[in-house]
């Protein structure tokens, strides 16, 4: 099972394909902004996928979201596409040591049971980014389903 440490020498099971920051325009202007249950964008349940895609279908920035996701997202519904539909997105950016430490800190906060909104505020990320971390951690066995 993958391990996660938050010491000065961060050790993560993922290193070059980590979670990138979502551009501000996407998490401020998208149709998903303000949706009460962002978990539907990261669920495998067919009804949740259909719900997320129906929200994306009405989004004024779906094309920009899709472009971002093709290059950066391996989890969730983005731009009306699932992760499986975006398999072509193989080129993830390499993280700096600072980004790696922040990633470990966010994951640590999730494991400590902090609320999504509190984590997002503490690390200046959107709620959706925290849900992406949670989904990734569940897939890696770091977080219970």
General form: globular
| Helix-strand pattern | HHHHHH
Count up the helices.
6
Beginning-to-end CA distance, first to last residue: 15 Å
The count of DSSP E runs of length 2 or more, i.e. the number of strands, is 0
What low-confidence regions span 5 or more consecutive residues with pLDDT below 50? 1-17
What level of helicity do the residues show?
A: 40-55%
Arithmetic mean of pLDDT: 80
C-alpha Rg (nearest Å): 15 Å
Please indicate the count of domains: 2
What class, by secondary structure content? Answer: mainly alpha
> What about the largest sheet?
none
What share of the residues does DSSP label as strand, in percent? under 5%
What key attributes describe this structure?
145 residues, mainly alpha, 2 domains, 45% helix, 0% strand, disordered N terminus
Describe this structure in words.
This protein has 145 residues and is mainly α. The protein has helices spanning 24-29, 46-57, 62-72, 97-111, 116-123, 127-139. Helix 5 crosses helix 6. The longest helix is centred in the C-terminal third of the chain and has 15 residues, at 97-111. The model is unreliable at 1-17 (pLDDT under 50).
């Amino acid at each position: 099972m993958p391990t996660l440490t938050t010491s000065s020498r961060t050790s993560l099971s993922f290193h070059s394909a980590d979670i990138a920051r979502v551009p501000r325009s996407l998490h401020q202007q998208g149709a998903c902004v303000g949706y009460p249950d962002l978990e539907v964008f990261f669920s495998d349940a067919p009804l949740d996928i259909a719900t997320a895609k129906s929200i994306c279908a009405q989004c004024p920035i779906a094309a920009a979201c899709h472009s971002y996701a093709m290059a950066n997202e391996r989890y969730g519904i983005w731009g009306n596409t699932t992760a499986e539909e975006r398999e072509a997105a193989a080129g993830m950016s390499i993280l700096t040591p600072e980004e790696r430490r922040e990633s470990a800190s966010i994951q640590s906060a999730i494991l400590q049971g902090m609320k999504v909104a509190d984590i997002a505020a503490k690390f200046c990320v959107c709620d959706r980014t925290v849900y992406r971390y949670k989904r990734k951690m569940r897939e890696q066995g770091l977080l219970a389903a």
